[in-house]
Amino acid sequence: MPISSPSTHHIALFEPDPSGHRMVFVRYILEAMVRRGDMRATLILFPKATHAPQVEALRNTYGSILDIHVVKEPDPVRGPMALSGKLSRQLGHARRLREAVARLQEKGRVDHVHIPFADDYALFPFAMRRRPFGETPWSGIAIRPRFHLARAGAVVPARPEDRVEAWAYRGLLRSRTLQTLFSIDPFLAEQVSNPRVQTVCDPTDIIRRKSRRDWLQADPDATVILAYGHVDHRKAIDRLLSAACAPEVPSSLVVALVGVQDPAMQSVMEGPAAAILRSQGRLIEVARHVDADEEASAFARADIVWCYYPGSYCSSGAMVRAGQMGRSLLATEEGLVGHLTRLHGLGLTAPERDDAALTRRLAQLAHDASLRARFGAAGAQYFAAATGEAFGELIVEAFVRREIAA
Q1: Structural domain for 32, as ranges
Q2: Do 299 and 230 contact (CB within 8 A), yes or no?
Q3: What is the pLDDT of residues 208-219, one digit of tens each?
Q4: Residues 268, 285: contact at Cβ < 8 Å?
Q5: Largest CB tally within 10 Å, which of 152, 214, 250, 328?
Q6: Do 46 and 140 share a structural domain?
Q7: What backbone phi and psi angles, to 5 degrees, belong to 140?
């Protein structure tokens, strides 16, 4: 257990899921706590996360200030994740979080509770609770709000749930003990006009990592399009492979899939488009978790980064990494990523239901190195300040702030 003094601020962090960028966010927060000093953290986890590599890395690096508190995972929600399913799931997570904080408070003081993915775990339950942890202040990060995007100028399909989501955010912001609601979406703060909503960057430190362009085994003259992260159907990999096979796309284009492949992708990866690309030496697969230097190496070799995720309208870690590394994007026209891509000239976009437009945009980027360079330079400028240090410092400052805005 970390050694602390009565003046040490004790922060409870709730992130039970080690997948994706979640523990990266936690790491940046812990780094900022170490830099500040006189702070310690308890990370609240579910049992299945305790031995995840990402959690073990946090233990090994921050063990002097970090304790782990394990709570039972709520029963899984059956059926499709519609609004009712999401509410049931969040009620279970919020209940476990509140129970965990109560147990920690029985053992000693908890000065602040922080939920890095607040809208995943507690948006609806805490919209109905003015003081979810008694008088203990709390903060969280809104990762994927959607209700405001059309007003901000993004292209998004209308959906009835947007009204319910807007109601939930209004309720959340009436919480008497909410210190700050951060958002990695730069448009949320201006749309809700509430002083407790603060924009924070979607962070990465990829530019500081050691990278090797030859890590991906692609021909030096090849144009590489990179799909990075969890490789699943959400990322429309089937459409990427099909577009890459189109006659108007140059044969110098190589598709690189870097990240753990979802088992449900087997039929796609054994399908005809994948077979054609493999036979031509135009498909690279690194089907596993990669470390930070390998991640940087993948982006260093990429010429184009695939951010074409139909039905996903929130921010993208791949977008930020591509920007910092000066790589152009091929993105979905709809949603936040598409809006930022057009607004700041980060790449090309195509509608999520238009295969012909997608193929044309891919061919255009593959053929035009000067266009890719222009988009890459714009991305490097726009995302230059989106660092882990900037992210962590802003969030940790809220942990010690005493006043709560009206």
Answers
A1: 9-203+387-400
A2: no
A3: 999 999 999 999
A4: no
A5: 328
A6: yes
A7: -160, 175
